[in-house]
Amino acid sequence: MKDGRDTIVAAATPPGRGGIGIVRISGPGARAIAQALLGRPPRARYATLAAFAGADGYPIDSGIALWFPAPRSYTGEDVLELHGHGGAVVMDALTARAIALGARPARPGEFSERAFHNDKLDLAQAEAIADLIDAGSQEAARAAMRSLAGGFSREIGLLAQKVLELRTYVEAAIDFPDEDVEFLQKPEVAERLADIAERFERIGAAAATGRALTEGLTVVIAGRPNAGKSSLLNALAGHEAAIVTHIPGTTRDVLCERIAVDGLPIHVADTAGLRDGGDVIEREGMRRARAAIARADLLLYVVDAAAGAAPGELEAMPDDPPVLVVWNKCDLAPMPARAAGIAISALTGAGLEVLRERLKAAAGYRESGAGMYSARRRHLDAIERAKSEFEVAQARLAQGASFELVAEDLRLAHRALGAITGEVSSDELLGAIFAGFCIGK
Questions:
Q1: HSE-CB for 113 with a 13 A CA cutoff
Q2: I want to staple 289 with a disulfide (CB 3.0 to 4.6 A). Which of 106, 263, 271, 350 is the partner?
Q3: How far is CA 21 from CA 24, 86, 92, 173, in A?
Q4: For residue 99, which phi and psi values (nearest 5 degrees)?
């Protein structure tokens, strides 16, 4: 084993009251802890009914014990799981007992980090665990499961292998400088280049959709009072999430809803109407609205089509984030000719399907299908770096440049792909990834 010189313990179920609570222990001291708590380690990979003994000999709880000897366990170490009654007092007592017997509290994500170090998971699979826990839709959960099963890693691994094979092929030609022209004219070179380029395009598109599934889209609805912002939020959410009245300034704070559009998680925020004046509470609401806009991926700026836009209103919109102008109340008045944006009616639902399609496009999302994987921004960045290095190598080959330079470009492309699965990683990267996990996972 490459990691885990000490033994760690944590509750693997959320804090609070529940029917079942699980305490997980992993490391070289797990066997001794099992001996003290249970009298002896249970039969490997069988559910064993047992009492969990306290220091005074009286049972803390009774439940199911599961024993997974190394290396056939989640972490690759000896693992003991205690499935007891899900009360906070019981979970705390079992955790404290394990600590008294030599374990220490686990850091967030430390069980999964040990699984990574002990070659039970690669980095993309480990991240898929967190993505599965945080999934905001069934499609996101399915995509995370595919990544956890190794589908995304296999695609990346195959692409990396193709790049490595081409690099090896180029390096073999370095020893024969007089045959450069013949090498470039070989059909095999063109076929390899075309195959790798196609794989980059396909995997990049899939990863972009996977990232949208995983991270979702943050959308802020803004506009002047009574433009129909809260009505639009209710229409998108499918229920009355916001109070709607004809009184200007009804919305005083940022109201957030989480919705799903064809599996794409979208975080929608309704904000206070933007205008000059207002009382102190309304001005604070407008300040918060502007702060929410600054953090958004997309701004839906709602205009009352019946009343029209105020002079200079549309010109005053921010450059960042991207803005989609939504002309609401198209059941009362048409969208102005040559105006940018889309026409909808939050009241009748007209145009909402077009709006949903625009939201998916803004996230770079395409409906998942059977081959979609969960992905993150760092995966997209790594794929883009690798693709860029490959395209440089491709251009050098076309120009007849030094094969040494081409080989170096391909080495950098291969290295960038290795960062996705953890073949190439730094302690800082690992720390940042696993710190976002649940304690006990």
A1: 23
A2: 271
A3: 10, 4, 10, 61
A4: -65, -40
Please list the residues that pair with 59 across neighbouring strands. 53
Residues of the chain falling short of pLDDT 70: 1-4, 175-185, 239, 241-254, 272-283, 367-371, 425-426
The DSSP 8-state label assigned to residue 104 in this structure reads E
C-alpha distances in Å from residue 387, one per residue of 200, 396, 410, 417: 6, 14, 10, 9
Q: Which residues of 297-327 are buried (b: 16+ CB within 10 A; e: fewer)?
A: bbbbbbbbbeeebeeebeeeeeeebebbbbb
Beta bridge partners of 257: 268
Residues 47/62, Cβ–Cβ less than 8 Å: no
Sole residue written with tokens 């940022």: 254
Q: What is the pLDDT of residue 57?
A: 84
Question: Could you give the 3-state DSSP secondary structure of residue 404?
Answer: helix
* pLDDT in the model for residue 438: 79
Query: Which tens digit of pLDDT belongs to each residue from 84-121?
Result: 998 899 999 999 999 999 999 999 999 999 999 999 99
Q: What is the pTM of this model?
A: 0.76
> What pLDDT is stored for residue 3 in this prediction?
45
pLDDT for 371: 60
Helix, strand, coil percent content, the chain, rounded in steps of 5: 45, 15, 35
Of 54, 98, 58, nearest in space to 80 by CA: 98
The helix or strand, by DSSP H or E, that contains position 163, with its residue range, turns out to be: helix 151-174
**Residue in the block written with tokens 């009914």:** 49
Q: Is 150 exposed, middle or buried (0-12, 13-18, 19+ CB in 10 A)?
A: middle
pLDDT of 319 reads 77
DSSP E strand boundaries for 224-291: 255-261, 264-270
